[in-house]
Amino acid sequence: MSKPTTRRKVLAAGAGAFGYATLQAEPIRAAIPAVAAYQAEGSGWTPRLLTPAQGELLATLCEHILPRTDTPGARDAGVHEFIDLELSLADGDEQLQATGGLDWIDRRAEELHGSSFLPLDAARQLDMLREISDEHGDHPSELLAGAAFFSDLKRRTLFAFYTSKVGRTEALGLPDRVRVERFRGCQHEPGESHV
Amino acid sequence: MKPTSDTKTYDAVVVGSGATGGWAAKVLTEAGMDVLMLEAGRAFDPATDFREHTLPHDMELRGRPDPRNELLQRRHRQSYCYACTQVNADFFIDDVDNPYTEAPGTHFNWIQGNVVGGRSIMWARQSYRMSDYDFKAASLDGYGMDWPIGYADLAPYYDRVERYIGVNGRKEGLEILPDGEFLPPMAFTCGEAMLKETLAENFNRPMTIGRNAVLTRRHNGRDMCHYCGPCHYGCRTNSYFNSPQTTLVDCEATGRFTLVPDAAVIKVDMKAGDLASGVTYVDKTSHLTREAKADVVVLCASTLASTRILLNSAEGGLANESDCLGRYVMDHIYATGVRGVLEARAGAQPERANRPNGIYIPRFQNLKDPATKNPNFIRGYGYQGGENITTWQHGNGIPGFGADFKRMVESSTVSTIGLGGFGEILPRPENRVTLDPEATDKWGVPVLQMNCTLGGNEYAMVQDIIAEGRAMLEALGCTNITQNTEPAPLGSGIHEVGTARMGDDPKTSYLNQYQQSHTVKNLFVMDGSCYVSIGCVNPTLTMMSLALRSSEYLVDQHKRGELA
């Protein structure tokens, strides 16, 4: 036989060696290549796709979408770093839409205020974002490209923030590791309202 | 190159280590037989391979498909399956090395395991019994062929499999969905309880909690579920059924069990007297071809993989006098259904516990009561689904941005109710798999060509799945109801069965009722290949019960010397 059974140890281990006790202190699974790579990285950030200036613009926009309140904001959660990473792996069209959108913001700022976006004060920045936000129904044609970009950025920001460790633990109040749980389900008596 | 021949002759070789292979090997080894198990997938170690506690923030892309992940890129077909992700792509087969082809104009999704345990590692664990509405369907509506066995024949084996693997559920006393030997049921959410009340009041239609192979209390030395959620990534507490942590452990304990991973069986070898002599396989690590000798050959490679082996074993398929081999491919209608927002539950707080289960609405049409007859199709479908509560994902639907927006997202939740139809696909001889005349896999072995389509009965059923689903959600008070009317290609339900159907007549069936070849008496096919009709319930529990019954028959026949 090419290989004698190499499974003996494994099967024995599978027979019940993994109890609840191992759950609480369980480390991140370094066996997953993507996880190992992630952990090896330092905290200093250099954008992968964007220029440093575009990176700062992105971080500012994301923080306007999900600002620090009584809980951390987008910048605290590194939302801009995640979006830059994701874009760096995307196809050319998707990258162009994102960088084009950032350029659009600066062009619009020039049109309105004669300056790029970042030097504007917070009130002017927020006014600019309100005109392309989905709180308005129909945008005039000259704002459509900006509105599409901002809508996409909002979607990316929500995902990046609430799937981050900070978003999960501090904004949603969930534990940072899997815990032993019990599912209770509906506890109402028959005929009692579920609402 | 001449194959290397192993000197030892085993009592039996079992091909495949998944749900059915595990049962066959358990019965045979415990009865004193010396068993060789060949598994095409790699060795699997729960200590390092189980990854169910991976959270989004553990992963650089938070679980989204990573274009740099070569494992995932090589699984472009497998990643159709919801269970094949960034986390566990290596549980699934490599599509580049293991291709299959599709007849022009047809599509097929063949999802396969690549590990010891096969798809029992990633299965969805739903475990329902078939009834005589299924076993005797042809007698009831005239289409196709009855099974050679009935519910009463299989019921004792269902009992034993359920007691061993652990199936939670609630007894309902329904003829269409026979009760089993259940562990305590999982609970409904409140939204699901509301749906159950609505169905009882407005439709006189039963609904039950899903019956699944997850432990709701400690059972047979295994810990109960800790409700982390993604069972398809594994389970450190051994709380759902998979073969490496249960049946294969029992096999190992007999001392009569040899398991060889990375061994892809090519064909069944024959000797004089219309008897199988063993199998030829390729060692995927050394690329050497080897022969394994055994008195009995048991194929449990999964329906289509076993069929491919038989088609590669002889011109026109081994022992295929009936011309049934490769025909009558069935699966379940999959991916069609409805979803709606349950406003009454807006703001409900989801539990931290992730229940690895949903609800089940059993088939309610074309039953013995004439009032249940649907004029547009025969057979029927059930719904699986449940309530889902989003904690932030609904944020895209909340207008605006900024601090107020953030507070609104975090202080609100949205409840949706989803119902997905699982419908019976009829056995049609023209739905078949054959060997592709040209294409081969990485090891030069001819591969399957799939030629399967849905028919009129299935499309009529899809319309009904949508219409009835909408009616139920509307009666519950759901809004924003969306629907998917496009059924997925065959195979997508990952319930493919039927290509070597069983029967009493060798002219119209490939196997007898014990999953034994009509003509090669020491050849058994104990996976889903034997299905005569598929019913509308998930098939693994039935497959395991059939394998248990057939394995005990095999042992008896072997002892009597009837298989030599």
Q: Please state the structural category of chain B.
A: alpha/beta
Mass-distribution shape of chain A: globular
Euclidean distance between termini CA atoms of chain B: 30 Å
Radius of gyration of chain A: 24 Å
Query: Would you report the number of β strands of chain B?
Result: 19
Largest interface: A-B, 76 and 87 residues
Strand content of chain A: under 5%
Order of helices and strands of chain A: HHHHHHHHH
Averaged pLDDT of chain B:
97
Q: Major beta sheet of chain B, specifics?
A: 7 strands, mixed
First CA to last CA of chain A: what distance?
64 Å
Task: Please give the largest β-sheet of chain A.
Answer: none
Task: State the assembly state of the protein chains.
Answer: heterodimer
Annotation, overall tally of beta strands of chain A: 0
Report the CATH topology name of chain B. Answer: FAD/NAD(P)-binding domain
Q: In CATH terms, what is the architecture of chain B? A: 3-Layer(bba) Sandwich
By CATH reckoning, the class of chain B would read Alpha Beta
Shape of chain B: globular
Contiguous helical run count of chain A: 9
Portion of residues in beta strands of chain B equals 15-25%
Poorly predicted spans of chain B: none
Explain how this protein is built.
The complex is a heterodimer of chains A (195) and B (564). Helices cover 52% and strands 0% of the residues of chain A. Chain A has 195 residues and is mostly helical. In chain A, helix 4 (52-65) crosses helix 5 (79-88). Residues 1-43 of chain A have low confidence and may be disordered. The two termini of chain B are 30 Å apart. In chain B, the strands form 4 sheets. In chain B, strands 1, 2, 7, 8, 9, 10 and 19 form a 7-stranded mixed sheet that branches. In chain B, strands 6, 11, 12, 13, 14, 15 and 18 form a 7-stranded antiparallel sheet that branches. Chain B has a 3-stranded mixed sheet with strand order 3-17-16. Chain B is globular. Chain B has 12 helices and 19 strands. Chain B has 564 residues and is of the alpha/beta class. In chain B, helix 1 runs parallel beside helix 12 and helix 7 (190-203) packs across helix 11 (456-476).
